[in-house]
Amino acid sequence: MPKILIIEDEQSIRRVLKKIISEENKTYEVDEAEDGLEGLDLIQNIDYDLILCDIKMPKVDGVEVLEKVRKLKPEIPVVMISGHGDLDIAVQTMRMGAFDYISKPPDLNRLLNTVRNALDRKELVLENKNLKKKISQKYEMIGQSKEIEHIKNLIEKVAPTDARVLIVGSNGTGKELVAHWIHEKSERAKYPMIEVNCAAIPSELIESELFGHVKGSFTGANKDRAGKFEAANGGTIFLDEIGDMSLSAQAKVLRALQENKITRVGCDKDIKVDVRVLAATNKDLKKEIAEGKFREDLFHRLAVIIIDVPKLNDRREDIPLLIKYFAQKIADEQGTAVKKFQPNAIKLLQEYDWTGNIRELRNVVERLIILGNQEISESDVKLFASK
């Protein structure tokens, strides 16, 4: 049942608005507030689907109410009620995010159309919000341990912002997975996420890879080429293993973060880019800074938020869920029936020392499915998963 709040200091106007709206649709639940202060108190405690708010009121006026609603609950549409002479302010509130405005005395058809459209808009906004929360199964994060729940909660807070994130952790813990979650839950999800493995690119080519080059800038540069920052424009660039990046490339990345500009190798023309940067490393960057291998100013630019991905040994309670997930995934990939793991087999796998983390567990599960019996037993684990 849609909940509507009318904030209006004139009782007669309040009653007219409530009567029109309630008679139009008996399912609407309509509350009243006689000033902005009372209205804000109700908004903080009740989830409304629509707010109709007068512009000029004692204590707290409509403009201030709109500002607070946009901060507290931005998904709620606010329709402003303008009196004679308030037209300029009404137009101003539209620029501030008001859904629409209606004049006093209210026109019946205009009021009802505005209410219907505003409620439809609220429903659409919520649908879009829910869609953005759905993550591609390819990058599903499996686990219910307190460590994983902490990371999921952190991602929920960080993803909608443009804050840079440094993801740290050992090899195989799932740092790339965290980066994809952040991107897919962000406002940039409709644009690309470009991944760069800094450790896999020779140091003499990393600048060209990131920023592009012009024809003739070095041997083998046969034509102009855009870099990864340009390819990620509007979206996200993920700099994996950034601790392996050369100092000269670090200086250029720092400039890109400071000025939102990059320069292709061999060219002096600036190119503006709008890119969110996520980075990951398995190195201790503070130690690298002390040894002169990593720029401290770049570290502070990248590490607005730090997400530390735990080792599998520190979240052993998630191993049964991970085994089940990998068994299903491998069966789907191979087009075979899912093999079941006996409780004793799972218990034994939980006791192993997983130095290779989740990546190693996935390989062991696949090996057991290929070589083990139809139902994976403890003896299968001892035979085929020995470490």
Model description:
By secondary structure, the chain is α/β, with parallel strands linked by helices. The protein has three domains: about 5-130, 3-Layer(aba) Sandwich (Rossmann fold), CATH 3.40.50; about 140-310, Rossmann fold (3-Layer(aba) Sandwich); about 315-385, Helicase, Ruva Protein, domain 3. It is built from 16 helices and 14 strands. The protein has helices at about 10-25, 35-45, 60-70, 85-95, 110-135, 145-160, 175-185, 205-210, 230, 245-260, 285-290, 295-300, 320-335, 345-350, 355-370, 380-385; strands spanning about 5, 30-35, 50-55, 80, 100-105, 165-170, 195, 235-240, 260-265, 270, 275-280, 305-310, 340, 375. The strands form four sheets. It has a five-stranded parallel beta sheet with strand order 2-1-3-4-5, sandwiched between helices. Strands 7-8-11-6-12 form a five-stranded parallel beta sheet. α4 (about 85-95) links the parallel β4 (about 80) and β5. The mean pLDDT is about 90.
Write the layout of secondary structure elements.
Elements: E1 3-7, H1 11-24, E2 29-33, H2 36-45, E3 50-54, H3 62-72, E4 78-82, H4 87-95, E5 100-103, H5 108-133, H6 146-158, E6 165-168, H7 175-184, E7 193-197, H8 206-211, H9 228-231, E8 236-240, H10 247-259, E9 261-263, E10 270-272, E11 276-281, H11 285-290, H12 296-302, E12 305-308, H13 319-334, E13 340-341, H14 343-351, H15 357-371, E14 375-376, H16 378-384
Parallel strand pairs: 1-2, 1-3, 3-4, 4-5, 6-11, 6-12, 7-8, 8-11, 13-14
Antiparallel strand pairs: 9-10
